[in-house]
Design a protein that fits this description.
Largest sheet: 5 strands, mixed
Strand order of the largest sheet: 3-2-1-4-5
Shape: globular
Number of strands: 5
Structural class: alpha+beta
CATH architecture of the largest domain: Orthogonal Bundle
Helix content: 55-70%
CATH superfamily of the largest domain: Ribonucleotide Reductase, subunit A
Distance between the termini: 45 Å
CATH class of the largest domain: Mainly Alpha
CATH topology of the largest domain: Ribonucleotide Reductase, subunit A
Order of helices and strands: HHHHHHHHHHHHHHEEEEHHEH
Bound molecules: fe (ii) ion
Number of domains: 2
Radius of gyration: 23 Å
Length: about 425
């Protein structure tokens, strides 16, 4: 029998040496960008609304760049190959340069902050969103975890968060949206040239992250897959709220020609491309938090729907939107682990203030509107309390003790719920 050769993967064409060489060729100077015309444009061409929105949006980038510059060192230590370590040191220089670039823009064009980076970070901090804080505080903790554990599995988790979630699905789509508008209206030429270089750098960083994850995945598919899926499950709900404008005021992005759904679509498409390039079988992956049978735009729209209805984030109350509830149950079914209970087990939520829903845990879990014929476990709870639990805002045990979550039926199923719905 002839041996089958595995199909060449898209990352085979990328080499660490080539990524390094591209860094040498692509070097640029953040300290030499001329912001003279930008300062004029800022005062005279931008509207009040655009100035307010640009300060908000660019602050998210400035703080993000500062965080990634600070957090990359343990990645250098944990990378197994010298060529990977060398590339990561070039990336760390890039991230520092990006932070210097945004700091200069804030000071010299916007006129906020002081001479040192820390004071400008402090001056802009009130603009930071909850989603941004969640993602980047996780990046801080991830760096600590990688310092303590340099295993390949831990490195895969760390690179997933840094290169795939932060760079490929959040930063790069935002940079493209910002650049497109400024190009079209010929605004802020210094900022634009810097952003172009930042985006080229990011492309290299993302290429590296995807290559590294593809290599790790080939070596040890099971644990690396678990690491990647684990990070996505943990962080995706936060990403929908990173660019949440104050009071969901859409003009924060529409005044620059894009909507949050546009941004989310770019992020979802980019994320899908990177995961496929790594070699992950995303269409059929147990516990995978995204529905790959729908378009990236629809995936993004559903995520935004949950975010806007208060199903993610720091606080309720939830908006009683039937579509949002359906999306939530669908995603619970998608990420549930039915092997933790007897096949065919049915859990029903008897909402005190909404129609019931139930999940059937059979091979692949499925979600259904309305009551089941004979549920094994029934949970009587208000919709707000239930969503507080799924959004990590409430402890289910405390709700039981306070009588706000009343289980009935097979309590062995109740005891197994943490295994059915991990994380
Ligand atoms: Fe960067
Ligand atoms: Fe980067």
């Amino acid at each position: 029998m002839a041996a089958t050769t595995p199909a060449p993967s898209p990352t085979d064409a990328i080499s660490y040496d080539d990524l390094y060489a591209r860094w040498e060729r692509g070097n640029w100077r953040a300290t030499e960008i001329d912001f003279t015309q930008d300062a004029v444009d800022w005062r005279e061409k931008l509207t009040d609304e655009q100035r307010r929105s640009a300060l908000w949006l660019y602050t998210l980038f400035f703080h993000g760049e500062d965080s990634v510059a600070d957090n990359l060192s343990p990645y250098v230590d944990a990378a197994p190959l010298e060529e990977q370590k060398y590339f990561l040191t070039t990336q760390q220089v890039d991230e520092a340069r990006h932070s210097v670039f945004f700091h200069r823009f804030m000071r010299e064009v916007v006129g906020v902050g002081g001479t040192d980076v820390a004071s400008t970070l402090r001056a802009t901090a009130p603009e930071i969103t909850w989603g941004h804080r969640m993602v980047f505080s996780r990046l801080d903790r991830m760096a600590d975890e990688l310092r303590a554990d340099r295993s390949k599995r831990q490195l895969a988790a760390a690179v997933t968060l840094y290169h795939v979630v932060v760079e490929a699905s959040l930063a790069q789509p935002g940079q493209h949206m910002i650049e497109r508008y400024l190009e079209e209206y010929d605004l802020l030429p210094g900022f634009r040239s810097g952003m172009r270089n930042v985006a080229l750098d990011e492309q290299r960083h993302i290429g590296f992250g995807v290559k590294l994850l593809a290599d790790l995945y080939k070596e040890d598919p099971g644990p690396v897959q678990d690491a990647i899926v684990g990070v996505l499950r943990e962080t995706l709900p936060w990403t929908a709220l990173v660019a949440k404008p104050p009071a969901w005021d859409d003009t924060y992005t529409t005044c620059f020609g894009f909507t949050l759904d546009d941004l989310g679509e770019e992020g979802a498409r980019s994320l899908e491309q990177k995961l496929r390039a790594i070699g992950l079988p995303v269409d059929d992956l147990p516990g995978f938090p995204m529905d790959m049978s729908i378009s990236p735009r629809e995936r993004a729209r559903r995520g935004m729907k949950l975010a806007r209805c208060g199903f993610f984030g720091p606080e309720g109350p939830v908006v009683r939107d039937p579509e949002a509830i359906e999306i939530l149950f669908d995603s619970m079914a998608r990420t549930a682990d039915p092997s933790a209970v007897r096949p065919g087990t049915t859990i029903q939520w008897d909402f005190t203030d909404h129609e019931a829903w139930h999940l059937v845990l059979d091979g692949r879990a499925s979600a259904h509107r309305g009551p089941a014929a004979s549920p094994d476990l029934r949970l009587r709870v208000s919709l707000d309390d239930f969503v507080d639990v799924t959004a990590d805002r409430a402890d289910p045990l405390r709700l039981v003790l306070r009588g706000r979550l009343r289980p009935r039926g097979d309590l062995r199923v109740l005891a197994r719920m943490p295994r059915v719905f991990p994380g």
